[in-house]
Each structure stands twice: as structure tokens, then as C-alpha cells.
TrEMBL record, chain A:
PANTHER family: PLASTIDAL GLYCOLATE_GLYCERATE TRANSLOCATOR 1, CHLOROPLASTIC (PTHR30249:SF0), PUTATIVE SEROTONIN TRANSPORTER (PTHR30249). It comes from Azotobacter beijerinckii. Pfam families: LrgB (PF04172). The chain crosses the membrane at residues 12-34, 46-66, 72-90, 97-124, 151-177, 213-237. It is found in: Membrane. It is a multi-pass membrane protein. One of its GO terms (cellular component) is membrane. InterPro entries: CidB/LrgB. Keywords: Membrane, Transmembrane, Transmembrane helix. This is TIGR00659 family protein.
Automatic annotation (TrEMBL), chain B:
The keyword Transmembrane helix applies. It is a multi-pass membrane protein. This is Putative effector of murein hydrolase LrgA, UPF0299 family. InterPro entries: LrgA/CidA. PANTHER family: HOLIN-LIKE PROTEIN CIDA, HOLIN-LIKE PROTEIN CIDA-RELATED. It is found in: Cell membrane. It comes from Azotobacter beijerinckii.
Amino acid sequence: MSLDWQGAWQALVQHPLFAFGITLGAYQLAVAAYERTRWVFLQPVLVSMLLVIGVLLFCGVDYAAYREGAQILTVFLGPATVALAVPLFLNLKRIRLLFWPVVTTLLVGGVFTTLLGVGLAWLFGTERLMLMTLAPKSVTSPIAMLVSEQIGGMAGLAAVFVLVTGILGAVFGPALLRRCGVRHPAALGMALGLTSHAVGTSRALQEGEECGAFAALGMSLMGVFTAVLLPLSVAMVV
Amino acid sequence: MLLRGLTWLVLFQLLGTTIQALCLPMLPGPIIGLLLLFVYLVWRGEVSAPVQEAAGSLLRYLPLMLVPPAVGVMAYADLIAANFWSIAGALLLSLLVSLAFAGWLMQRLIERQANGGKGA
């Protein structure tokens, strides 16, 4: 009896749960590796991403097919974003005490991070399409995708820049901030959430509840602020 | 418990999406949902146990949900390769500088507020 290896392989790769399965598997491995080593470069999102890309290339599955299968996961990003209201509310008292530091950091820091990113890319000779895709790099991906499309960039690529920024922030952020003498959990969280959105926020949640709450605050304020002001300022300048 | 909380979160997200489609096209649905839930929690003055449980469970798996968008790097490999150094340099430098700046600024402002409170 001859076994139909080809057919079995196709059935495996094309199963609706294939994308979900490899993502879950890669994530388990990545979390186990991170917990065993505690090495900052082994951020679970980064390691899982590399593992999944490896498997997809090996199996000859393209990104469009993977994205469709992985929708079981991505569809929960919406409710998870809504869920950030809970840590925000639970820390309302602490946030209220620091109202002016939060608002000042948001305005000054938010404008600074956006201008610096676009400015450096322009200085390095990046074309306009790329600049508009880079501009919302510090905002959570659903907002960044919408905003970059509105100002003439590419939504999918914007999500990638957002993620790279987030991972960089989660990898280097806490150590860099401590080295700069930033000790207050609110300041750590605010800086992580403001510049590295959801990835920074999930890193900040590991540092503690107060740190996570300020990261969620920084992320949502930066998101709303960018979504409203960036398209307006691009329309005025260009 | 978990499902009841999840129902609330999904309802707020759907409400946000409806409002976005109706009158706020520049704000994504989930962010409107976040703001609405926040206002609702402030109005009620407490978080119900089911919502707190569902939110905690979802947020614990936030990194997992971010993996599929991250895999999107592979779809833009050519474009990224063509501009690799300028993009990588701009992303890394701007992130490190602005992260340190935001943290430093916030820390200074907190300290100033604390000192001002004592002095007065």
C-alpha cells in the first residue's frame, strides 16, 4: 500500500487551524525560552515571529494565506485594546495625582518622537511614501495602519514598522531608562507606552501594575493624539 | 464569568466600530471602545468581576495576538531590503532617543511636582 504523502501534506498545510497552530506552538516555545534564559533579546513576540516566518517559508505558505488563518487571533486585538480601559481605571487615582506630568510628557514627547523618526528617515534619504509610512510608528497598529493610509503611506508596512519599534522598545527600553536614572514606575510606563505602544505596554505590565497602567495610558493617549493631529498637520505642511 | 466579561468587551468594541462608521472616521473603533468603557467605568465607580477577569485574561495574551501582524514583515521583504539601513537607523535612533527623553522628562516633572508639594 502506498501512502499519499503529498495529499496529507496539503491537507495539513491548508487546514484552517494550521496558522493558529503554528502561531500557538511558536509562542509556547518562545515563552519557554524567555522564561528559562530571561535574556532581553528573546522577546516572545520577536522569537515567535521568526519561528513562524521560518515555518511558513519551509512549508511554502504565503503571508496572505497565513493572515487569513491567523484571524482567530488578530480579531481579539480589538477587545484587548478595549480591555486596556480596566488597568487605566484601576489606576485612575495615581494618574490623577500626576495629571500635569502626563499631559506635558504626552505633548512634548509625542511630537518629539514623531518628528525625530520622520526627520531622521528624511535625512537618511528615504522617499516620501516611506516617510508617510514611518510617521505613525509609535502608535498602536490599528491606528497606525489607518493614519498612514490617510496621509499617503502603506498600511501593511506601517504595521511592520510599528511592531519593529515596539519590539526595540521592549528589548532596550527598561534597561536604557534605568541607565538614564528613570526609576519612577509611572515614568517608566509612560515612556514605554508612548513610544512602543502595545508591545511596550505588555513589557511594562511585567514590571508591575502601576507601570502597566501608565503604559496603557501613554499608548491610548498617544494613539488618539496621533490619529487626530497627524493627518491634520500633514495636510497643512504638505 | 470569563464569557460574560468578554461579551461586554466585544460589545464596547462593536459600539466603537459603529460610532466610527457613523461620525468619527479618523479614530479606530477599538480606541473609541476603550474610551467608552473607561467613561462607563468612571461613571459606575467600579469594575465588575467578570469584566476584570476577561480583561486580565485577554491582556495576558496580548503578545500572542501581536505575532500575526509581526509576521507581515515577510510580505514586504523586498521593499524593506531596498531601504534597509535608512529605515533601521531612523527607527532605532529615534526610538532610543525619544524613549529616553520621554522617561527623563516624566521623571523630572514628577520630582518637581513632589518637591513643589513639599515646599508649599
